[in-house]
Amino acid sequence: MGIIDFREIVSAKADHASVKNAPVGTSALPDDFETFCRDFFESLRGMTIFEQISTGPDNGIDLGVEETRADGSRIRWLVSCKHKAHSRAPVNEDEEKNILERVYKWECDGFIPFYTTSPSAKVKSNIEGVAKSGKRVDWYLKDRIERELLGSAAGVRMAARYFPKSMVNHYSTFIATLQTWSASDVVVDDDGVASIAGFRRVVGHANDDAAAAIQHLARLANLSDTMDAHEPYFVKALNDAIELAPDFFDYRKSPVTLADFAHVSPTWCSYSLYRASIDRNNGRALAFAYFVGAVWSFWDHARANRVFAEMRAFRGRLSLDDDLTPDQVESMRASEEFKQAVRHHMAQGYLSVGQVGMLLQEQMRDIVTRLFAYTNPIPCTA
């Protein structure tokens, strides 16, 4: 069972109940599925539209798109959009006629069936005939459409626009491990060493323990692939954090790649963090200090908690009008009374996920959420 319910987009038939009964604010136009199809190929697949969707007779084409390949070559596709998820009926021959003739008429190199149900046996045979004639065929049935939507950040955003109810199901499992590898991909050599995607383990002879070890290796490989897939999103979130709080990080350039983060570090300045926590004029205040502390924790959680505790100790001992010199700051930090206050604040667990989540909103919450969801190890200089 898939995540996306394509019935969230009303039927292409104007007299269908899904059109007549659609609540205000939802997809309620019979051509909404074709609009989704156009957005899918234009925004998600990066293709150029040479024939737009239109009302009335379509002259043998629902949508025309042109794909530019990595080698610079171009492929023109005739796209047929058929949305029958509401009836669950297959696309039949009366609805999909003269496919090859239409491909030639529009001077296309190939045909894309973009269907939310399967084609009938006759339509499937006709489409296979297009391929046999030398034209390309690229199938887009509901499983592939869903897979490509949920396989990238841009696709997820598009799915959220067209299928908001279904995406509640998606976000119930926000992070899903990629299933690139299976136990059958693990190679076991003559010495009983199993390996896959750079992971190795001695498993010995075939037995239950060996089978479990092989399954574990495949899982490690999938977790590694998932982390690799998440890396660009993690790096983007780190760069967004630096852009929002540039004076709390030491860095050489922006934007920063993951490898560059070996040369990026927090400033770890508790007094500067305290000053930011009382700076309401620049939209910072205490929530901003929580944001900085949470981001710092991706470098060193223990140190981030200690520096944050020092910030809280400053807040408890200074008035809004106090502005200490560096020497005064160090003198206060060295006092036993201040150290005792720091120990008290460290025990409070201020930077817990729940506490940070309750305090942060909008941009800061978005950045920290992405950092948590797409976490990758930050390289160190050692």
UniProtKB/TrEMBL annotation:
Keyword annotations of the record: Endonuclease, Hydrolase, Nuclease
Pfam family, one: Mrr_cat
Domain of life: Bacteria
Matches recorded under InterPro entries: Restrct_endonuc_IV_Mrr
EC number of this enzyme: 3.1.21.-
GO molecular function: endonuclease activity; hydrolase activity
Residues annotated as domain Restriction endonuclease type IV Mrr: 30-86
Record's keyword annotation contains Hydrolase: yes
Keyword Protease on entry: no
Identification of the protein by name: Restriction endonuclease
Organism field: Massilia pinisoli
